[in-house]
Amino acid sequence: MLKVAKVWKTSARWGDFIRGEYWINPDGSSDYADGDIGDKGHEVIALDRILGDKLDELSEAFIAYFSHLKETSPEDYEAECEVYDFDAGFEPEDFYYQGSEDPSELYFSPGIPSEVGKAAFGGQWDELTHDPKIYYLKYYGAIRVINNNFEVWKLTSKQISLIQEFVLEQADEQGVMGEDGGSVLPGTVNVEEVSTRRWASSLEITDFLSMNHPGQVFAGIRVASRNHMIKTSRIFKAAIPTPPAQVYQVPASKTYHIQGVDEMDAANKAVRASLGSLKPSGNTLREAMNAVLGWPKLKTTSVKGGVVLDVTPEMQRAIWKIYEKYDKRK
User: Fold this and answer.
1) Interval 136-184: pLDDT, tens
2) 155/43 Cα distance (integer angstroms)
3) CB within 10 Å: which end of the chain, N or C, has fewer?
4) Cβ–Cβ under 8 Å, residues 69 and 116
């Protein structure tokens, strides 16, 4: 178990001084992954690491691909050489997958043919192209960080330790750690397990730093038969600041009567209705739904065939605040 040798020397909360997006890699290193500020986002960094581990296999697959084209369809071979901007006189055996620093460049432009990708990655190629971030979580055991949210594929004791070390390192870099005295900084972290859709929300840092087993992190959390989260004492606790009322124009009150669905689906529909024609990201919907379900003033009435959900103006403003946070546009 990780032993905390240092303590906090400020009364600020975790969320007040930690901002940003990162990858925590399997070896414990971390990469800054906010593409809006830095050079690369989560997807590009994941691709660089994944493709970088397969340079030899990709090179062999490309050689086989070009050799086959040259033998069977010279016209297509010449066209592909132009696409890849090869010099005149290029021969397939001359190819080597360049880009040990940025292997993702070829992935995006001009691209990796599916024949090449499947030859190098086998059946996992389709998973990689569908979502490189999920692939990196699943097959590498990486941890995706967005502010105080930590996303894993299947939480392990090692990953708990890596998250704890990351928390302490980030706090130390921000200058909020002391050598003695004081107490652990109040604040919370969220841990999401993608493979099971379990989400431990608002775990106190003081509690989390003493945990060393996934069962402790997800204590009291279970998954419904339809893979919907069921409210427990640890999930759907909202700590969303309510912006001033004059900032947003929202109806005085809205009531949604949704037939044939449970409370989770009702919240989903209410969130989408509050966002109108906007197209929110997955993070926006998830966070907003959790805020709605955990809001102290949530009013739901079970009726035959569904529920009645009363969404207050404060809840709608919170939903919009979350939308701005994740989608970065108004």
Assistant:
1) 999 999 999 998 899 999 999 999 999 999 988 877 776 666 554 344 5
2) 21
3) C
4) no
Q: pLDDT digit string (tens) for 4-58?
A: 434 444 444 545 455 689 999 999 999 999 877 778 899 999 999 999 999 899 9
Distance CA 142, CA 27 (A): 9
Nearest by Cα to 53 from 99, 95, 93, 22: 99
> Tokens 């204590």 label which residue?
219
The first and second tokens of residue 124, run together, are 């996992």
> What is the full DSSP assignment across 178-235?
ESSSS-PPP-EEEEEETTTTEEEEEEEHHHHTT--SHHHHTTT--B-TTS-B---TTS
Helix H segments across the chain? 14-17, 42-52, 55-72, 74-83, 104-106, 114-121, 125-130, 132-140, 157-173, 205-208, 214-217, 263-275, 282-294, 313-327
CA distance linking residue 103 with residue 40, whole number of Å: 13
